[in-house]
Recover the amino acids of this structure.
DNA sequence: TTGTACGCGTTATCAT
DNA sequence: ATGATAACGCGTACAA
């Protein structure tokens, strides 16, 4: 049986409550007893039982993370690892633990979340899924349970979230290509039900406007967010009456597919068609040619999500925070000659 | 204030202990009261408080995972994500949660582990770090705290672990190349202080023997486990008096570096030098040429680590289990013509 | 400044 | 088959 607060109290000749106060750093405690207690604690190698603390405290000092469902995607990009690392670092800094909600086999994201909340295992939640079910969010809101979404949810006003500035990012990519002299710039992306796709497209279009270019439907390719999707979308663009000389793809995997398609059509990247991807997946730099991409700083997404949540847990400030993480265009060969 | 077991008891007209029994599925309980209680539980949306349960139970139904420190590596390959997914699935199946131990900033792996154990936040531990400190393991052993290591620790006898059969895998890779007619096969790897490097090398050497080939020191390149390491190691091999026509690299990243080096030297893969990598990183298939690699089934590593740990937690069986996950050679263009 | 007494929500042991 | 009671280890108003 492990050493408890009672053992420490007995050994120090004080009451358990006094020991408790020492641990809590209570102000009104005599220097002598405090020292004495600390000595005994060290001697006995006492460590407060976190569970008992939680029960008395009504706080677990633990934040829950709901893993996303689309595992193949997560698997291919290191998004999950990086975001977890960010969450982990912020949690550690503030003295919190991270509990992973794992699910599958009959249970869905919604149920998994409920379980975590209802069983009171965590003080707050970070939702990672890119298309968080409204059901989950609505339920959490109704229960007034603290949570933060990574990525913008559909109804974003009264929910805390941390996300990239995807409009700005889409703008930056397209604007760069326009300034390189391209006048026919295509866009390849996934379903517009993804908020980030919409936003990146919006930014892209804005850049066209700003550079006096017109958007053409023929230059838009929508397909699944995977390599094959990018390839198919590119095939479509190549059949346009006036094919683009550059494309912005809203995801690196799609960019890989697009590049492959272009090569197979006997053309070169970037000489015939320049390509800029998104997310700066580690793969990007290894491709032939290395792919330019918009870096999104996934670690920071996680880190700030943790910060926002913990602020919310500790502060009385009930305001919903929205944080935009800036992005950075990483230029490599696929987007054409640079001035480096 | 949430609804507790007392509320349910009151509403059902029974004692809290009876409700508890219903929850636990106790055998001696009348069908009538059981139904009644279940009704009330559903009606009141009662959910047992996990913390209180843990306190009374002395069991958290939570397993801790200690993340590795070498984040760059983890970041580049999706190892972490996959292994977590495996752990998550097994944990979920058995009704366990997963607590991530995150550390850094002054704290080391040892301290992070101690914290988890001493505060009694978890019932058992899975250690992911490739070179788990002896200090950590010794301490856990002394405390008789249940844990499982993913990968073989230095002193492996009386510790539970789950790992690939790396000797077999190294053998398979080198043997394949030998059967393709190669007589000069090199080996590129990281420091031999990594157990998996030793093992893969051992298998490689065994395959040479089995095929009547001799191992030459000139054909061994040791450098850091990253792309640049692979490139440097390959440069060295190219300077050998009789350069190899094929290489086994103990890590995909090193394989990428090796391929790059070969190309830069004006040679081709696989025509001039065939290459086989390790881990079957998602990147491998996207390389030019696509890299053959040994798939190591990271998900299974995690899954079985979870299983072994939970068995250990629940069973009285105190025996240390050792599980070998088989590997599979995935043939792509970098290893030469196949019969497909 | 310190001790007393009770509560946190559940489970387990003894009764009945 | 069920109820009363005492843990589980800690925090905290209240009293002293």
């Amino acid at each position: 049986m492990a050493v408890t607060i009672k053992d420490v109290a007995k050994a120090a000749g004080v009451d358990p409550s006094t020991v408790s106060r020492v641990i809590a750093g209570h102000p009104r405690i005599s220097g002598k007893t405090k020292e004495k207690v600390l000595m005994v604690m060290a001697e006995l190698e006492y460590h407060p039982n976190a569970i008992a603390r939680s029960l008395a405290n009504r706080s677990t000092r633990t934040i829950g993370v709901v893993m996303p469902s689309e595992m193949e995607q997560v698997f291919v990009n290191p998004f999950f690892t990086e975001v977890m690392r960010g969450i982990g670092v912020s949690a550690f800094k503030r003295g919190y633990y991270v509990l992973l909600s794992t699910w599958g086999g009959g249970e869905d994201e919604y149920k998994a979340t409920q379980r975590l909340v209802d069983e009171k295992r965590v003080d707050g939640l970070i939702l990672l899924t890119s298309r968080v079910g409204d059901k989950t969010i609505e339920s959490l809101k109704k229960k007034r349970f603290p949570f933060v979404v990574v990525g913008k949810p559909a109804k974003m006003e009264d929910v805390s979230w941390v996300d990239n500035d995807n409009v700005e990012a889409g703008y930056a990519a397209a604007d760069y290509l326009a300034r390189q002299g391209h006048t026919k710039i295509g866009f390849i992306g996934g379903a517009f039900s993804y908020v980030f796709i919409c936003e990146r497209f919006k930014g892209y279009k804005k850049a066209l406007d700003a550079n006096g270019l017109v958007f053409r439907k023929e230059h838009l390719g929508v397909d699944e967010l995977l390599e094959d999707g990018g390839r198919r979308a590119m095939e479509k663009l190549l059949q346009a009456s006036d094919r683009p000389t550059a494309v912005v793809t809203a995801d690196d995997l799609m960019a890989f597919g697009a590049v492959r398609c272009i090569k197979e059509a006997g053309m070169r990247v970037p000489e015939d068609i320049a390509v800029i991807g998104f997310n700066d997946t580690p793969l990007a730099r290894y491709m032939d040619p290395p792919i330019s991409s918009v870096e999104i700083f996934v670690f920071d997404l996680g880190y700030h999500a943790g910060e926002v949540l913990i602020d919310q847990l500790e502060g009385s400030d009930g305001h919903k925070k929205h944080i935009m993480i800036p992005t950075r265009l990483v230029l490599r060969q696929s987007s054409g000659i640079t001035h480096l």
Observations:
- Chain A has three domains: 5-57, 62-164+298-326, 166-296+329-335.
- Residues 4-6, 16-17, 19-21, 23-24, 48-49, 51-57 of chain A lie near DNA strand D (CB under 10 Å from a C1').
- Residues 298-314 of chain A form the longest helix (17 residues).
- Chain A is about 45% helix and 15% strand.
